[in-house]
Fold this sequence. Notes:
With about 425 residues, the protein is mainly β. The protein has helices spanning about 1-20, 25-40, 60-65, 305-310, and strands at about 125-130, 140-155, 165-180, 185-195, 210-225, 230-235, 265-275, 280-285, 320-330, 335-345, 360-375, 380-395, 400-415, 425-434. It contains four helices and 14 strands. The protein has a 14-stranded antiparallel β-sheet with strand order 1-2-3-4-5-6-7-8-9-10-11-12-13-14, with no helix packed on it. A hairpin with a 2-residue loop joins strand 12 and strand 13 (about 400-415).
Amino acid sequence: MRPFYNFARLCSAATLTVSLLSFAPATFAEEVEAAASTESTLTTPTDAGSEGNLPQPLTQTAYESLPNANVELHAPCGRPDCPHCNPAPPKPAAPILPWKALYFDNDFSYKTKPNAPHFLGEELKNIPLFDDCCEPSGITMSFGGEVRHRYMNEDNRLRPGGPGRSTYDLYRWRQYVDMKYKDEFRVYVEMIDASIYNNELPVTGIDKNRWDIQNAFFDAKVAERDNKPVYFRAGRQELLYGTPSAVSPGQQVISPLDWANTRRNFEGFRGISKGDTWDFDLFAVRPVNTANPTGGIGARPATTSVNKYDNQRDEADYSRWYSGVYTVYRGIKDQTIEPYYVWLQTDTAKQDPAWADGNRHNVGLRWTATKPLKDECEKPWLVLASDVEGAYQFGTDERQERASRFLHCQVGGHALASAVDSELEHDLLLGFRR
């Protein structure tokens, strides 16, 4: 730590020297130049025949030896090596990656900005349609998708029939088409084919879903808030609630479960409003595919249900409503507050008598924060982060009162590469859950 401290102190001294010289009056600047050309302790002349005898940058000690060192300074010093008179151009901000956890949230709007970075495949995004030479139509289309293979080697995984050992291959193909009319209307369709091969143990509901519709919905602009559109969405769609933080990937309330070969999806309605400081998302949906368990006998994700939906059209589970509101507040610097409410209503008489009827309400709050620590040069060298969430659940199952609660906390530290003079970044993560 001693070398780092000395370096920080020198940075501070250099900063002070520059600021004092940069505001020197003309007469004092001339004294500086004269002293720099005559005092050997202040300059190092170049050899004969080299490029000019320019003075070297002044040190703090040399500056203090000059007359009138304590005079209030106002004019630029004019030295070519002065970072105040000749500041370096600011470093360009790192581009925000356009790809998101949900494909329909991808954002390629940067393409309209000058000097925008280039990303692979962007030629297939926001393609204008039906434009003429006079006026754009406002209609754009985007294409995209993925092909994924994963080799699995498992031991003691819980599967139908008990734990066992299995090696197998998982394949997944996804393809989407996204059409928009300005910010007024949108239609999005995404297909999926999830398959499993060479498995010794029975298939589970998150392994297989052949040739089906994963997302198919429309958005319609119904209002504006903070000069941003408010949308009504209807159709089949994935949900993701819980923003990423410095110590957590988020997705803690509802997620598409991307680790699975299939992905969770739902059918229903949403109201989406993103503002300057508050985001609101209201939803009322039903679970759809085999990645959403609903019960035991004949219900997802039992093996019989996997075989049933293998090559058949997915259907919504009409015995369940899953609804609520998720909000995000970003009005405090380096902090995020996320209050939410979720309601699960189950009527198993419509589908699965083995599953308990009931109503469950979940009220929760999540708070994330980051705190950068700076050195003596006012440069951040460590970022402390925290992620705290708690919720209370209450309701009934088969007319019996139920209640539960949880508290989850994570704290961590992220050392910046520039501070440790290394290309590596260091993380520390601690947490507890009750």
